[in-house]
Design goal:
homohexamer, alpha+beta, Tetrahydropterin Synthase, Chain A, 4-stranded antiparallel sheet, about 30% strand, elongated
């Protein structure tokens, strides 16, 4: 049976939901307040889950100190106190919905963590809205 | 790989656990304080998870504004500030345990949400007691 | 300088807001959904704060085990899994608003705790609605 | 003895800390990441406390439904999903620190709530950083 | 479709991470501050999930009062206010990482709960570090 | 009117409540499980509140980055992952109750923060037990 370890982190970003190929009316109908032109923001809470086997020598599935460093490098440095639309290459054209942010973070972490570990993410955009990827 | 979106909601209801086919002694033994005749109540917290694919145009799995409206119509209007045993058709004879409440809510939401989306619910009856359905 | 100790507890009760001297229309206008006749309910979270001096022998302001027992006897046994309107003498005629519940609990605890300690209560009716007494 | 009622609300805004009269180096030294030019954002959680007397007829200090409406009009409509620096008159020149946001909200609410009620605010900018005004 | 019930509990323990077969330098490199010789401690929060079928007579998957008693006997009495390394047979030689604590608790609960129920655990060591077993 | 800023931090420590001048029976009666000889532990959550005036130039009462550094130096480095009884000079003879820990932290912070700022602390030993000093 596998075991999972989970590490929580937070970052504070501005964003705006917008699809340049939609009309202004469509953008407003689909994205509502989230489409307002000057951006709004969130305290994003991220949970990174790694699923693997417990190393009998250490009792660890994965060193959470190392996982924290990877999250700091790949997520916090990239997105914290940034405007996702303006300041990041990842969301220059990709709409920064919580779903897409989770996929982008997954791909960044997947490239850093050995494939023996399954990765699952949970991202809270607000206390009431969250996403999980993959699911 | 699939993605999930989760929307949280709350409702405050009175209820009593009771099975009319049990003896009074059985009801008391099985349901304890929850069997007291004049009802008690809870702040129920509901998490509705929809599992699907990210729409590449919107970046959404499902519009959470629409999901909120469906939850408001099917759950909040039906159960909030109600006595589940006395005020609702669903629990006129069905025992309003957290498990049964989750199943009832699932069926109500299942009827409103396209079958392409898998639905999973988590219902908190208290901070220490929760149920998940389906699981 | 004084020090405070705080103990948290929870109870689950049904209640209904109603003033028999109001017309039906007034009751509905003032109390809204909370006036529905068959009761609804809440997970009430109570914080009891005692303000006093640190006993240099024990390092305690007040033994929190004893405070827990007093809360259990005066609050949990009295109100948990009860219908405040129907099952309690305190709210037989007094409207069980969060404000009044806090005052009633204060008076019950005040009678049990030495006057050297100032008592302050915080009562959460929901995550978004709370009261403090005295203030 | 007075009683307090507290109502919690949330709004999601973008902001940037900056003082146009400071040099660029000073702005960066004092405001750090919060000075980045393209804005970042937060889920602000606001607690509005009104201190007054319990009305013996209603058992209320203040109708929390009315307080919710006032908060919606004065705070949520004004600041939710907005860029505080660009979209609001209040922070066109005033630096939108949590302290200043609390003072601005206080003044807006003070103008709407009878002077018999003392108002106190708590504003969470993140889970770890909060302000209280007045204090 | 199966249904899950979840019961939350807490225990406060001291522990130290250490592998006697590692050199001192290795212990320090791998376990860092957690290796300090005089122990530190945590408020562990445990969620026990039982997956099964709803009994149509009771509306329960499992009586949460009975589950609470089993958790009290197997977990709280065994580990609460204890030094995991010094006071428990389970961690006399097994390193008390959150992963290993979860496995030990699983085995203790598995021996008490009918095999018809699948058991899953989540253990919070801190607000930011958690494990799940089995996963 | 004054304004407060609050910064939250956490540390994980082992401790044991004991008064060497008490008999063994007294120690056990007064401190209960907390008197067990091999220590237990907690995730302590600390809230440091500074009360002062908003600087009109910065919009800050106090730079929370500086406050974080002071908390790190005076509290986290001193107590995190430590055994309070064995590893710290402050609690070599002083009983490490939450009350005494709060007073010790207050004195350490008071020595670092200008007297123009009033300091108030809240310390959570568990989710249900907290202290405030001064009060």
């Amino acid at each position: 049976m596998k075991t999972a370890v989970i590490r929580k982190a937070q970052f504070n970003s501005a964003h705006r939901l917008h699809n340049a190929s939609f009309s202004e009316a469509e953008n407003q109908r689909i994205f509502g307040l989230c489409n307002l032109p000057n951006y709004h923001g969130h305290n994003y809470t991220l949970e990174v889950k790694l699923i693997g086997d417990i190393d009998p020598q250490t009792g660890f599935v994965y060193d959470l100190g190392i996982l924290k460093d990877i999250i700091d490098e790949e997520v916090i440095e990239a997105f914290d106190h940034k405007n996702l639309n303006l300041d990041t290459a990842e969301f220059a054209t990709l709409n920064p919905t919580a779903e897409n942010i989770a996929v982008v973070i997954y791909n960044k972490l997947r490239a850093r963590i050995e494939s023996a570990y399954e990765i699952k993410l949970k991202l809270y955009e607000t206390e009431r809205n969250m996403v999980e990827y993959p699911c």
